[in-house]
Design brief:
Blueprint lengths: L6 H5 L15 E3 L10 H10 L13 H11 L6 E4 L1 H13 L6 E4 L5 H8 L4 E4 L18 E4 L11 H10 L5 E4 L20 E6 L12 E5 L1 H11 L9 H11 L2 H24 L2 E3 L6 E6 L4 H10 L2 E5 L9 E4 L3 H14 L1
Parallel strand pairs: 1-11, 3-4, 5-6, 6-7
Antiparallel strand pairs: 2-8, 7-8, 9-10, 10-12, 11-12
Helix pairs in contact: 2-8, 3-8, 4-5, 4-7, 9-11
The structure holds pyridoxal-5'-phosphate.
C-alpha cells in the first residue's frame, strides 16, 4: 500500500486462491479442478476457433453459446446470462441485486469470495452459523437485503434438498436469493427448474468443475428475465466482451457432449465414495459430500500438520486457517491412482 491507493483499495481483503505450482510435480488436490480433461470435442472446437477471426471482437451477446445453454437446460434464452467464470457472474450479481443499506446473509462457513465481494461493493452482511454437522439452517437464511448460498456448500460438500431451497425462497419473497451450484453435477439437486416459479431466484453455474474448463473461465446465471436484464446492464457498464472467442467455442462444444461429462462426473463420484470410506477406516470424520472434494478431520493428528506432511510428499490439499474449520482439510477428488497415493502417504504419516 502507498499514498496513491484509493480509500476502497486500502480496505480490500482479497480472496486467496489455492496455489498453482508451475512445475507439475504435485498431485494437485487443492482447487477442485477436474482430474479428467475436457471432452475431446471441446479441444477440437477450440483448435478450430484459432484462426484469423481472432482479430475480431467476440459476440458481446454470446448468442450461439446462450442458445446452446437454453437448449441443454430447457430454459428461455432471456433467462440466461454468461460471464467470465462464475466468480465474475457472482460479482456482477452482488452489484446488480444488493444495496449497502440492507444487509445480505450467507452461512458463516461458505465460499470465501462472498465476503470479499461484499467488501468490494461496500455491502453489509450477516453470517448465519451452520449447525453442528456443518449443515445450512434454511429457516435462518432470512434477509430483506438478499441471501447467498452455495449448494452443495463449499468447503463442506454438504447439499440441501430442493425442498429446503424452496423454503428459503418462500421465506425471502422481497429479496434476491443466489444459489451457487458450482458442484451440483456431483450429486446435488439443481434449482434451475424453479426459476419460472420464483422471480427472485438466481442460480449460478460454472464450467470449471464438472466440465473441466477452469482454464477457460466460463460461468452462467439462470433466472427470471427481469434479473438477467440487470446483469446485462452491469456487464455492459463494465466490459462488453467478457467471454472471448475461444471460451465461447469451448463452452458451446461442452454443452454438446453431455455423455462425456456424465461419464467423468460419475467416475469422480465413485472415487469420492471409495476415498471417503478409506478415510473413515483411518479415523477421519468426513462429511457426506455431494461435491468433487471431501472435507475431513482426523481424530488425533491436526489438519495443519497433515497439510504440511502431505505437501512434503508432493500432495497439495486445501487448508483454511479459519475459526471452526481450522482442523479440517478439503481434499479434491483426483483419479483413482491419485487417491490411492494419498491413502498410501496418509498410512505412512499416521
Ligand atoms: C469454484 C467455485 C466458483 C468459481 O468458479 P469459476 O467459474 O471458476 O469462477 C464459484 N463458487 C464456488 C462455490 C466454487 O467452488
Amino acid at each position: 500500500m502507498n499514498g496513491y491507493w484509493s480509500r476502497l483499495a486500502r480496505k480490500l481483503e482479497p480472496y486467496v486462491p489455492g496455489e498453482q505450482p508451475g512445475d507439475g510435480t504435485y498431485i494437485k488436490l487443492n482447487t477442485n479442478e477436474n482430474p479428467y480433461g475436457p471432452s475431446p470435442k471441446v479441444l477440437e472446437a477450440v483448435r478450430r476457433a484459432v484462426d484469423e477471426s481472432l482479430r475480431l471482437y467476440p459476440d458481446p451477446s454470446c448468442d450461439a453459446f446462450i442458445s446452446a445453454v437454453s437448449a441443454r437446460y430447457g430454459v428461455k434464452k432471456d433467462q440466461v446470462f454468461a460471464g467470465n467464470g462464475s466468480d465474475e457472474v457472482l460479482a456482477f450479481s452482488f452489484m446488480a441485486f444488493f444495496d449497502p443499506d440492507r444487509p445480505i446473509v450467507f452461512p458463516d462457513i461458505t465460499y470465501s469470495f462472498y465476503p470479499v465481494y461484499a467488501t468490494l461493493f461496500g455491502l453489509n452482511y450477516v453470517t448465519v452459523p451452520l449447525d453442528s454437522e456443518f449443515k445450512i439452517r434454511p429457516e435462518q437464511m432470512r434477509s430483506s437485503g438478499g441471501v447467498v448460498i452455495a449448494n452443495p456448500n463449499a468447503p463442506t460438500g454438504r447439499a440441501l434438498p430442493l425442498s429446503e431451497i424452496r423454503s428459503i425462497l418462500d421465506g425471502n419473497p422481497g429479496a434476491v436469493v443466489i444459489v451457487d451450484e458450482a458442484y451440483v453435477d456431483f450429486g446435488g439437486q439443481s434449482a434451475i427448474g424453479l426459476i419460472d416459479e420464483y422471480p427472485n431466484l438466481l442460480v449460478v453455474h460454472t464450467f470449471s468443475k464438472s466440465r473441466a474448463l477452469a482454464g477457460m473461465r466460463i460461468g452462467l446465471a439462470f433466472g427470471d428475465s427481469g434479473l438477467i436484464r440487470a446483469l446485462e446492464s452491469v456487464k455492459n457498464s463494465f466490459n462488453s466482451y467478457t467471454l472471448d472467442r475461444l471460451a465461447l467455442a469451448a463452452g458451446t462444444a461442452a454443452l454438446e457432449d453431455d455423455e462425456y461429462y456424465k461419464g467423468t462426473s460419475r467416475k469422480v463420484i465413485e472415487t469420492r465414495e471409495w476415498f471417503t470410506a478409506e478415510l473413515r477406516k483411518r479415523d477421519f470424520s468426513v462429511t457426506d459430500s455431494s461435491a468433487n472434494f471431501v472435507f475431513a478431520s482426523h481424530s488425533r493428528v491436526r489438519a495443519e500438520e497433515l497439510y504440511h506432511r502431505l505437501r512434503d510428499n508432493r500432495i497439495l490439499v486445501r487448508y483454511f486457517k479459519k475459526p471452526l474449520i481450522d482442523n479440517h482439510l478439503r481434499i479434491s477428488i483426483g483419479t483413482d491412482e491419485d487417491m490411492r497415493t494419498v491413502i498410501e502417504v496418509l498410512d505412512r504419516i499416521l
